[in-house]
Amino acid sequence: MHITIHPLPPTEIPTFITIELAAFAPHPRIPMLWPRGYTPDLHAYMARVKREAFPSPSNHFIKAVDSDTGEIVGVSQFEIKEEGDEAGELLAEDAPPPGDWPEGGNWGMKRFFARESWRLVEGSFGRGAHVVIDLLLIHPTHQHRGIGSQLLQHVLEEADSRNIPVGLESTPAGLALYKRHGFVETRVIKADMRAFGWREEYDEEAAKRVWMVRDKVGGREG
Ligand SMILES: CC(C)(COP(=O)(O)OP(=O)(O)OC[C@H]1O[C@@H](n2cnc3c(N)ncnc32)[C@H](O)[C@@H]1OP(=O)(O)O)[C@@H](O)C(=O)NCCC(=O)NCCS
């Protein structure tokens, strides 16, 4: 298998979403966030959000392609912020859901995590130049073949060529990969799912997120 990395065009947003939903399917937060499952209104909402991110010059969508088959096996979305760039908007604590929010979706949980993410980025980087990896996803049938490492390496080369730090929120599944590539655990974020109306048992350890930062090349020892 030979993997090549390319920009992902807007026409391939549906494939991005298919991989995203498949990769996150085992995560304990998914049934809490989308109790009706992966419905057409969820696909439409996700596609709209990604379409809106495309024109922003700081946003980047890339894909890992198996050049033997042409199949897209992994995707990533990341942002490159220049010194002094505006931070995105912090959602208000009582912000209502968007008009196309999927029926039954847990807006309170989504808003909580969006606000937390904003604070983590702001707290680590402020207005300094940095990269944030929003998503790094390998289709489940292609995991553990080194494709995640290749995609990550591609993003890290972008950061290193600018000599800027990189931050991301890792799921437990990604921790080992990111540590191998120089990320350091900076903050563990747990959220009590019961605060968002969840009544069933869930694996809190599997649901945790870890904010990880990889310093700029010039800031590292050695
Ligand atoms: C986390 C994720 C991106 C990793 O992608 P991946 O392609 O499986 O990553 P890699 O193959 O490069 O590395 C994963 C493991 O496979 C191992 N591996 C790499 N190449 C291998 C090969 N040819 N054969 C066997 N194992 C291999 C690596 O050593 C690594 O092991 P470790 O995690 O125990 O250290 C992927 O599992 C995923 O999409 N998960 C769901 C979504 C998610 O949680 N994303 C991260 C947060 S956004």
Describe the structure.
The protein has 222 residues and is α+β, with helices and mostly antiparallel strands. The protein has a single domain, classed as Aminopeptidase. It contains 7 helices and 7 strands, in the order βαααββαβαβαβαβ. It has helices spanning 13-24, 30-33, 40-53, 107-125, 147-162, 175-180, 204-207, and strands at residues 3-7, 59-66, 71-81, 130-138, 166-170, 184-189, 209-214. A 7-stranded mixed β-sheet has the order 1-2-3-4-5-7-6, sandwiched between helices. A hairpin with a 4-residue loop joins strand 2 (59-66) and strand 3 (71-81). The two termini are 34 Å apart. 25% of the residues are buried. The model has no long low-confidence stretch (mean pLDDT 94). Residues 23-24, 135-138, 143-149, 170-171, 173-174, 176-177 line the site of coenzyme A.
How does the SSE layout of this entry go?
Elements (H helix, E strand, L loop, with lengths): L2 E5 L5 H12 L5 H4 L6 H14 L5 E8 L4 E11 L25 H19 L4 E9 L8 H16 L3 E5 L4 H6 L3 E6 L14 H4 L1 E6 L8
Parallel strand pairs: 4-5
Antiparallel strand pairs: 1-2, 2-3, 3-4, 5-7, 6-7
Bound molecules: coenzyme A.
Instruction: Give the terminus-to-terminus CA distance.
Output: 34 Å
Number of helices: 7
Number of structural units classed as domains? 1
CATH superfamily: Gcn5-related N-acetyltransferase (GNAT)
Radius of gyration, CA atoms, in whole angstroms:
17 Å
Strand order of the largest sheet: 1-2-3-4-5-7-6
- CATH top level assignment: Alpha Beta
Pairing-aware structural class of the strands and helices? Answer: alpha+beta
Small molecules in complex: coenzyme A
Inertia-based shape: globular
- According to DSSP, the number of beta strands is 7
Beta strand %: 15-25%
Secondary-structure element series = EHHHEEHEHEHEHE
Largest sheet: 7 strands, mixed
- The percent of residues in helical segments reads 25-40%
Low-pLDDT segments: none
CATH architecture, please? 3-Layer(aba) Sandwich
The average pLDDT is 94
Organism: Zasmidium cellare ATCC 36951
Protein name: N-acetyltransferase domain-containing protein
GO molecular function: acyltransferase activity, transferring groups other than amino-acyl groups
Pfam families: Acetyltransf_7
